[in-house]
């Protein structure tokens, strides 16, 4: 054996002995790389893994600090993925060991994952989870103090000024200059601002070799507490971000994601958000100085040169970013307004708009405006692109003349393809500035331009490049609150520039500029680019006129919608279409997380609908099988037309007489047998059911309610009370005292099943039991709630005779019976207009919603004259929107379409085809336990075994996900066990759609079996 091998063997033997003696651990030992310390991975026989560290003799304070922090975190942050100390048998965290001299040994728990720098799964999630972890860590470190952290440490970028003397050691003029500029900014701006920020002990080195990631790119561990220092807490974020952004497409996006996640775990101040970008650059500058020093002392260290390539490349990338935009993005990620004073500037504009002068043609009191669409998605985009400036000018002028308009406008927020050239690239690869930040006003060259309000000339710039702004003026203004902002005027005449001087005051309405001709305005058809500017991003007269679509939440604060200044009779802006990730984040932030999103792991952005199909933003058509609301088909032209026409004429409340309302009540009541003759109009199914409850209480004088188990009747407090689906589910507060719950009549898995001809009567017995339970306390029911097919119960059809018997029990006790037709009404069941009619009963009250307005928010209650009369007790019934003329016209159109397109019959034919087909599939796929429904309201219940009926909920999740992914069919699950495939498509769902669904289901279930 060679001498060296022998030494290694002896070392390993010594380590093995140490592990057994001190820790009682036996196992495999493999060495790991380490600069000063010896590190080993230990795989113990029981499967546990450890990290054994043998520290070289050195800074005792630093080692003690590392031991102390892990002891502290073991007590205060038990969930953090950091190594945990494993004490020796004697209870000590460290022991002395003789391996290559005397060393201090520490055993730590092993953290799973791959080193960030080498992980293929690193991405934005990594940055976010790292930010979150560091936020939590720093929360915990607030309570940690140790003498070792109170050091003057070269790697503390809060002391970056220490390195000024080393800048000269850096190779390369450009690098030295960049680093010097960073240190200058540090001294003049960053360091003074840090004074107001929080100080504490931080980890200070979450670099890409100290962070571990799991297979999904989430942080699974943080290593090495040897660089801890007491400094400004924001340094923690900057150090981590400096490494997290290496190699990412969007460097600032990564910094912002990390900072935002940190902020959510450990809130930072606005002052801190403003420093992060500069501190990241400072970290690079410090790193370059440290490396230069080390290379001077240690010229053979080539590793340093390699890591410095990353640093210089990333620093150069950051130098191309706009600091103000970077800070705005970081603020936005942390939930602060991107531009702090933008909202108050807009408020000032809104409050003072009545005093503003028109910018062009102020003598025209009510200008007529021709609107142009220059967006990339415009049908005319190719035509505009093919025209040169002169031809465009001619066409624009012709259209303005044709429309007899005073001038033309181009819109704020338009995403345009016309901005070509390098100037529109950003520091993020493949990203361009393309969204218009101003409004274009098209008028002939030399048309005078007037100041909308007083200001002074702040910047004059001749952007004399092709497709630039040409002569540009920024006027500066101050709000009453002292906020400074600017108005920008681009594409002016040279003559304007000659007349103006910086600082010159400009009065409201003053004609201070004129439009430039094509040859002087950057080669455009003559027009004014008018833009509001709350922050000129340090660009002054070179301010951008176009922003980045994917950062619109920031840009629209930099340059808010100028419509407020213009006061035009037409919209001068469009909504900027955003990517899905942003919409999800903003929904959570601004709309609330309890509002669920379908297919939340891969949500859809739907922008259109037609018949039984939905259309996404890419134009992909999705077969919609869960939308009983758009009952007569998405965007049915007759319904749309009825709404449009009535909207043009009148939309007011029902206090005035109106033919449509009375006609609609007649037509709707005619859909019910006598004595159901009186209609009430409301806005939602919940409201209809709530009103029904009030009617029943007024009529019966009773307060209690009987409802069917697992039912849902609406989201109002009164309806949550009668919805076991909600009050007995997650977050529910349990059954209220005034509510009795009757057993759900489930013929598939309930007490009485298919084949039991008496099941209806037997299930209805439990309704009687509830009546008796009330009676035992001297109470009687006001109302019995039930649907004709139980929706949330799992699309269950009722056993024959159930409602007949149940109604009899309730009525015998003086109660009323309600048929909730909100889901199932309007001919969906095929055989009848209303689902309860399949049971041969007449309720006392019926409620309708969802399909009644084909998506328009309206609903109704139908009841008897006697019940309605009992409600007219002197208290006025008023509903602001219920029964307005637009709703009435829409309701009539829906009834017309159901009649004229024979939709009830269609539901029956296609529904039978669907159920026959599904039953045929059940012969081949044992997972189908039951197929049920009427017309196009169906349930297909999946079970793991037909014998045990064990619900196959996860299989259904797979089916729904695959039907969407592979077949573009939208479905959802239902039922208490989440194992019922719910089918309720818009009624125009065709035989072909049905066959497509059955084939897709067959294919998907087939894959499930394997
Ligand atoms: C049976 C039933 N009743 C009432 C409602 C409540 O209707 P809305 O959401 O219009 O308030 C729903 C809604 O899903 C329902 O399914």
Keywords:
1010 residues; alpha+beta; eight-stranded mixed sheet; seven-stranded mixed sheet; 28 helices; 39 strands; flat; binds pyridoxal-5'-phosphate
**Structural class by sheet pairing and helices:** alpha+beta
Number of helices: 28
Report helical residue fraction: 25-40%
N-to-C CA distance: 55 Å
What does the largest sheet look like? 8 strands, mixed
| Gross geometry | flat
Strand order of the largest sheet: 11-12-14-21-18-17-16-19
Bound molecules: pyridoxal-5'-phosphate
Radius of gyration: 36 Å
Q: Tell me the total number of β-strands.
A: 39
Q: Which stretches are low in confidence, meaning pLDDT under 50 for 5 or more residues running?
A: none
Overall pLDDT score: 95
In terms of DSSP E residues, the strand content is: 15-25%
């Amino acid at each position: 054996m060679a001498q060296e091998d022998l030494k290694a063997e002896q070392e390993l033997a010594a380590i093995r002995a140490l592990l057994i003696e001190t820790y009682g651990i036996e196992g495999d030992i493999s060495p790991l790389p380490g600069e000063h310390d010896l590190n080993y991975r230990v795989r113990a026989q029981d499967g546990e893994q450890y990290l054994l560290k043998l520290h070289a003799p050195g800074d005792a304070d630093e080692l003690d600090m590392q031991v102390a922090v892990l002891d502290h975190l073991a007590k205060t942050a038990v969930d953090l993925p950091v190594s945990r100390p494993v004490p020796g048998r004697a209870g000590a965290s460290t022991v002395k060991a003789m391996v290559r001299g005397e060393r201090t040994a520490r055993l730590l728990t092993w953290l799973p994952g791959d080193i960030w720098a080498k992980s293929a799964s690193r991405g934005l999630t990594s940055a976010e989870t790292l930010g979150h972890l560091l936020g939590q860590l720093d929360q915990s470190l607030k309570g940690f103090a140790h003498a070792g952290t109170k050091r003057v440490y070269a790697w503390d970028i809060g002391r970056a000024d220490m390195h000024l003397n080393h800048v000269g050691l850096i190779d390369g003029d450009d690098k030295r200059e960049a680093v010097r500029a960073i240190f200058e900014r540090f001294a003049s701006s960053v360091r003074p601002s840090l004074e107001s920020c929080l100080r504490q002990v931080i980890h200070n080195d979450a670099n890409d070799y100290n962070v571990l990631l799991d297979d999904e790119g989430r942080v699974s561990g943080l290593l090495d507490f040897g660089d801890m220092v007491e400094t400004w807490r924001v340094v923690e974020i900057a150090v981590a971000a400096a490494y997290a952004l290496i190699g990412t497409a969007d460097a600032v996006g990564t910094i912002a994601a990390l900072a935002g996640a940190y902020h959510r775990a450990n809130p930072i101040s606005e002052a801190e958000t403003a420093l992060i970008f500069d501190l990241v650059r400072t970290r690079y500058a410090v790193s370059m100085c440290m490396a230069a020093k080390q290379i001077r002392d240690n010229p053979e260290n080539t590793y340093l040169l390699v890591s410095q390539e990353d640093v210089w490349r990333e620093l150069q990338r950051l130098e191309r970013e706009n600091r103000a935009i970077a800070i705005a993005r970081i603020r936005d990620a942390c939930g602060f307004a991107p531009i702090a004073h933008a909202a108050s500037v807009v408020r000032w504009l809104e409050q003072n708009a009545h005093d503003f002068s028109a910018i062009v043609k102020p003598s025209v009191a009510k200008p007529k405006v021709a609107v142009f669409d220059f967006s990339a998605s415009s049908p005319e985009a190719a035509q505009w692109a093919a025209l040169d400036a002169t031809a465009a000018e001619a066409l624009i002028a012709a259209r303005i003349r044709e429309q007899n308009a005073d001038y033309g406008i181009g819109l704020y927020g338009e995403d345009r393809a016309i901005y070509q050239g390098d100037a529109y690239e950003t520091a993020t690869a493949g990203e361009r500035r393309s969204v218009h930040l101003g409004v274009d006003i098209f008028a002939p060259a030399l048309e005078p331009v007037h100041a909308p309000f007083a200001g002074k000339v702040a910047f004059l710039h001749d952007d004399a490049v092709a497709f630039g702004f040409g002569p540009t003026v920024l006027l500066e203004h101050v709000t009453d609150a002292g906020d400074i902002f600017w108005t920008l005027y681009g594409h002016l005449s040279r003559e304007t520039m000659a007349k103006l001087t910086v600082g010159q005051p400009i009065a409201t309405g003053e004609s201070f500029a004129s439009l430039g001709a094509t040859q002087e305005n950057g080669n455009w058809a003559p027009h004014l680019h008018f833009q509001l500017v709350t922050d000129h991003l340090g660009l002054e007269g070179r301010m951008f006129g176009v922003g980045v679509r994917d950062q619109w939440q920031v840009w629209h604060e930099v340059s808010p919608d100028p419509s407020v200044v213009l006061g035009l009779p037409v919209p001068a802006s469009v909504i900027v279409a955003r990517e899905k990730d942003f919409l999800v984040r903003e929904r959570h932030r601004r709309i609330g997380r309890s509002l669920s999103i379908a297919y939340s792991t891969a949500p859809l952005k739907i922008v259109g609908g037609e018949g039984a199909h939905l259309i996404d933003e890419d134009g992909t058509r999705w077969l919609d099988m869960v939308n009983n609301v758009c009952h007569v088909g998405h965007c049915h032209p007759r319904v749309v037309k009825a709404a449009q026409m009535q909207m043009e004429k009148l939309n007011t409340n029902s206090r005035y007489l109106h033919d449509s309302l009375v006609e609609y009540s007649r037509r709707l009541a005619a859909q019910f047998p006598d004595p159901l003759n009186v209609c009430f109009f409301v806005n939602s199914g919940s409201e209809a059911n709530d009103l029904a409850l009030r009617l029943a209480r007024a009529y019966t004088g009773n307060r209690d309610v009987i409802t069917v188990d697992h039912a849902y009747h609406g989201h109002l407090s009164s309806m949550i009370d009668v919805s076991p689906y909600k009050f007995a589910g997650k977050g529910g507060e349990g059954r209220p005292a005034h509510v009795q719950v009757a057993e759900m009549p489930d013929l598939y898995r309930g007490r009485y099943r298919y084949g039991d001809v008496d099941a209806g009567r037997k299930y209805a017995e439990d309704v009687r039991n509830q009546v008796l339970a009330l009676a035992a306390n001297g109470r009687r029911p006001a109302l019995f709630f039930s649907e004709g097919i139980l929706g949330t119960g799992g699309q269950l059809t009722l056993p024959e005779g159930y409602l007949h018997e149940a109604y009899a029990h309730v009525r015998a006790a003086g109660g009323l019976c309600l048929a909730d037709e909100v889901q199932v009404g309007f001919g969906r069941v095929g055989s009848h207009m209303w689902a309860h009619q399949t049971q041969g009963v007449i309720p006392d009250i019926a409620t309708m919603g969802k399909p009644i307005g084909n998506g328009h928010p309206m609903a109704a209650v139908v009841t008897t004259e006697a019940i309605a009369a009992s409600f007219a007790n002197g208290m006025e019934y008023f509903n602001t929107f219920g029964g307005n003329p637009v709703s009435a016209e829409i309701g009539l159109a829906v009834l017309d379409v159901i009649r004229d397109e024979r939709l009830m019959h269609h539901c029956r034919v296609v529904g039978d085809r669907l159920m026959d087909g599904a039953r045929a599939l059940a012969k081949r796929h044992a997972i189908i336990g039951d197929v049920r429904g009427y017309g196009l309201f169906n349930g297909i219940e999946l079970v793991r075994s037909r014998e045990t009926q064990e619900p196959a909920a996860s299989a259904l999740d797979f089916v729904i996900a695959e039907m969407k992914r592979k077949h573009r069919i939208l479905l959802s699950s239902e039922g208490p066990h989440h194992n019922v495939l719910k089918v309720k498509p818009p009624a125009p769902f065709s035989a072909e759609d049905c066959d497509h669904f059955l084939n897709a289901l067959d294919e998907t279930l087939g894959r499930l079996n394997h």
